[in-house]
């Protein structure tokens, strides 16, 4: 399954969570899709409902300490826009870990290897000069299952192995040729000397009466011929060495390309993948570290299944978020399922999302628009995308959106183009 | 021009038993090996407990192991190779570390083990 279908066609990322300090202007419920429920970044950031410009990902203890010191802020004030995620297991070098052990990790090893801790802060801007409240969150996520290497990953691995064996064979040739070409420069110098001596001897033997130099000339001639053969053989080896070096450069370039593809494909294992994440959020009055109170929590459970051969993919998402500001501080439970399958060059997928609000009055929670959300509602959609060449994709979706406060259910019907930079709607859905 | 290999040369005292060789490519990197007994190719690919021969059969010969490691990790390009020889008088574990010249680069590791017997 291509990741292409993650495009934000209908869904605008909803500003769901408490850290959004936007003015309380009337807003309609926004169309959301299952993709927006998944954790695309650190869960601590998702708890704040914000996206930091950059997330620090220290992978050494030294980097971690430096990042934490810079993120602590100054004068006891919570900084704005700080985000960090780190996996403790990988903070130290793992010399003994082989690739096979990594791919065949037990559940205990998975938890050790994939547990990541994230922290994030947010101090939204305010129109007044009053000190701004800040929010900070801390979260943890891990994998309980990580599938198996995909057939594509295995194929790339096989290609890498062939290229590496070819590299070793040619490396040996390069080594042998290098050894065989040693002494070439010295032999060349000696050959030049012999050539000069021979030239001088020829002139004296041919032009003068010094017949006694004839034997010396013949011996020099023999030495010259021997040196010529020696230099020719060393030169031939040097040529082979140069050719082998060119071959090695070419194979290295191919290995680099394959390694990049391997690293990308490794992120898309097949079989069952199960991620779990949880975290808490706190409010810091006037941005002071010392004046905090608990503000909300979030839990995500994301099972996913990719078929080994058929291009079939199934994603389930469930998340529970408490104290969601856009829902007047109520708790939100989203459960969704998405199935997708490759169809020729394109792909086809369908999803169904069930949303429930909790901790609400009997009549249902009030919306910021002054109307009422239903305490339970659903959304379904089918999506098609098809490559048109290059980075251009045709995309289409059809379905039924969440029920609006007035009881209406907007139809989702869009056709668009994805230029690789995001989606452009040609026929927008009615919201 | 290829980078110089990260090289190791050691003597290994064999006994009467079967000598075996394992090559571990660490740091979660991707590596492949070729093993030569003198100039004869003995095995290639992943090397795990490869039987080289009994001590009397291989004493006086040299095992050369070429291992090329390619960096497949996005943020780290640490590399290490461990050679383990068993079946001789002692188990020998030799490790060498390095790093790719660049991200997703490759590095050659070369180990030569001269197999010595009692009479040498």
Give a description of the structure.
The complex is a heterodimer of chains A (431) and B (120). Chain A has 431 residues and is an alpha+beta fold. Chain A has two domains: 3-150 and 268-427, no CATH class; 157-263. Chain A is built from eight helices and twelve strands. Chain A has helices spanning 34-37, 43-48, 61-71, 99-103, 107-114, 151-180, 184-207, 214-265, and strands at 83-86, 116-122, 134-148, 270-284, 292-306, 312-324, 330-343, 346-358, 376-389, 392-400, 411-418, 423-427. In chain A, strands 1-2-3-4-5-6-7-8-9-10-11-12 form a twelve-stranded antiparallel beta sheet. In chain A, a hairpin with a 5-residue loop joins strand 5 and strand 6 (312-324). In chain A, helix 6 (151-180) packs antiparallel against helix 8 and helix 7 (184-207) packs antiparallel against helix 8. The longest helix of chain A is centred in the middle third of the chain and has 52 residues, at 214-265. Chain A is elongated, with a radius of gyration of 34 Å. The model of chain A is unreliable at 1-32, 361-372 and 423-431 (pLDDT under 50). By secondary structure, chain B is mainly beta. Chain B has one domain (6-116): Lipoxygenase-1 (Sandwich), CATH 2.60.60. Helices cover 3% and strands 60% of the residues of chain B. Chain B contains one helix and nine strands. Chain B has one helix at residues 55-58; strands at residues 6-13, 18-25, 30-37, 40-45, 50-54, 62-70, 78-86, 92-99, 106-116. In chain B, strands 1-9-6-3-4 form a five-stranded mixed beta sheet, with no helix packed on it. Chain B is elongated and about 50 Å long. The model of chain B has no long low-confidence stretch (mean pLDDT 94). The chains are: A alpha+beta (431), B mainly beta (120).
